[in-house]
Design goal:
alpha+beta, six-stranded antiparallel sheet, Rossmann fold, about 30% strand, globular, D-amino Acid Aminotransferase, Chain A, domain 1, 16 strands, 10 helices, Dna Ligase, domain 1
C-alpha cells in the first residue's frame, strides 16, 4: 500500500524523535511504500502532491534533511492512505484544506473529524462522566463565577499541544491574580476580570476552564488507543515538581497500569472518535481529589508515545502500529 505522511521536520528536536522513528518503522514495513510531504506545500488545485519517496533503508536521523531525495509529483488518488503528523497549533484553514481532499484521499484520521474534535465543547459532550468540573466559555462573567466557585482553575486551548496552551489561574490577594504557563511564565493582574480579558485575547476560540486538581503532582498518565484498542500506558512525571508533566516539557516517563475505571472511560468515548473517522488517540488522565484517575484531555490525530511505550515494555509497539495502518488501508 502507498502511504503519504505529512509532517514538518523543523518542529521536531532530535531528542524527541517520535515521528522520525515512526518513519523508520513505516519505511521498513514490507507492505508499505512510504512517501513524505511537507504540510504547507504538498498539493495544488489540480490535486497533485509533491511527495518524497522514502527508501526502505531509511534511518530516522535522515528526517531532518530531505535534500538527498528527489521529489515526485503524484495525484492525490495515487495514495491508499494519508497520515497527518502536523503538530498543533494548526494555522487557520489548514484542516479545512485537508478536509477538502477527503473525496480523493483517505486519512488515518479524518480532517473533518479532527475539526469536530478541536471544538472546545466536544470533549464535555462525550466524556462528561469522566471529567472534573469543566465549563467551555469566552464569557467574562461565567469565567469569574467558575473561578470563584472552585478557587483555582486551569484554562486550556484546544488547538495546542505539549502544555503550551494551558494556563493555571490563581488568586494571590484581593488585588493580585495570576496566570501561569510552563513556557511563558507568570502574568499578574489587578482583578479577575482583567485577567480573563487578557487571557481570552490569546485565542479566538472558547476555552475549557477546569477545576485545578490537587493531586496533579502524582503525574499525567498517557494511554495510547488505536481504533478502540488499548496499546498501553505510561506515567509522565515532572522531575522539577512542575504541574505540567509533558515529556516535551521535561517530564520523565515510567510504565503505568490501566485501571478498570480508565478502561471504562476509554470504552465510553473512543467509539465517538471512530464514528467520525479519527482512529489514533492519546488519553491523558490526572488523579482526582478522590484518588481516582480522571480524563484531563483526549488527544486525537498526531499522537506521541509509541516509541516510549516500546522502550518501556520491550514490545514492538511501532511494528504493531504499522501493521494496523496496513490493515486499515485495506478496510
Amino acid at each position: 500500500m502507498r502511504l503519504l505522511v505529512i509532517s514538518e521536520p523543523s518542529v521536531y528536536p532530535e531528542k524527541i524523535a517520535e515521528t522520525p522513528e515512526l518513519y523508520e518503522s513505516l519505511a521498513a514495513h514490507p507492505q508499505i511504500e512510504l512517501f513524505h510531504a511537507f504540510p504547507h506545500d504538498f498539493i495544488d488545485e489540480d490535486l497533485q502532491v509533491k511527495a518524497y519517496p522514502v527508501p526502505s533503508s531509511y534511518s530516522y536521523k535522515e528526517y531532518w534533511d530531505w535534500s538527498a531525495i528527489e521529489p515526485v509529483i503524484l495525484s492525490a488518488g495515487h495514495f491508499d492512505l494519508a497520515f497527518c503528523r502536523t503538530l498543533k497549533p494548526f494555522p487557520d484553514g489548514y484542516m479545512d484544506q485537508l478536509a477538502s481532499l477527503e473525496p480523493w484521499l483517505r486519512f488515518v484520521n479524518s480532517p473533518r473529524g479532527i475539526i469536530k474534535h478541536l471544538k472546545a465543547d466536544f470533549l464535555p459532550q462525550i466524556a462528561a462522566a469522566w471529567l472534573p468540573p469543566m465549563i467551555v466559555t469566552r464569557d467574562h462573567d461565567a469565567a469569574c463565577d467558575f473561578f470563584q466557585q472552585h478557587g483555582e482553575i486551569v484554562a486550556k486551548e484546544t488547538n495546542s499541544c505539549g502544555g503550551k496552551g494551558v494556563w493555571r489561574v490563581n488568586k494571590i490577594s484581593s488585588e493580585e491574580f495570576t496566570i501561569t504557563n510552563h513556557y511563558l511564565g507568570i502574568e499578574t493582574f489587578p482583578s479577575l476580570r482583567a485577567l480573563f480579558s487578557a487571557l481570552f485575547k490569546k485565542s479566538k476560540d472558547p476555552y475549557q476552564l477546569v477545576r485545578f486538581l490537587e493531586n496533579v503532582s502524582e503525574g499525567d498518565k498517557r494511554v495510547l488507543v488505536v481504533d478502540g484498542e488499548v496499546y498501553g500506558a505510561y506515567l509522565r512525571l515532572s522531575e522539577a515538581g512542575a504541574w505540567v508533566h509533558n515529556v516535551s516539557a521535561g517530564g520523565q516517563y515510567h510504565l503505568a497500569s490501566i485501571e478498570p475505571y480508565e478502561r471504562e472511560a476509554i470504552a465510553g468515548t473512543a467509539k465517538a472518535y471512530q464514528e467520525m473517522g479519527v482512529h489514533t488517540l492519546g488519553y491523558d488522565f490526572l488523579m482526582g481529589d478522590d484518588g481516582k484517575w480522571q480524563i484531563s484531555e483526549i488527544n486525537a490525530g498526531n499522537i506521541a508515545g509509541y516509541s516510549l511505550l516500546e522502550e518501556l515494555t520491550g514490545v514492538p509497539i511501532r511494528h504493531r502500529f504499522c501493521d494496523w495502518i496496513e490493515r486499515f488501508s485495506r478496510r
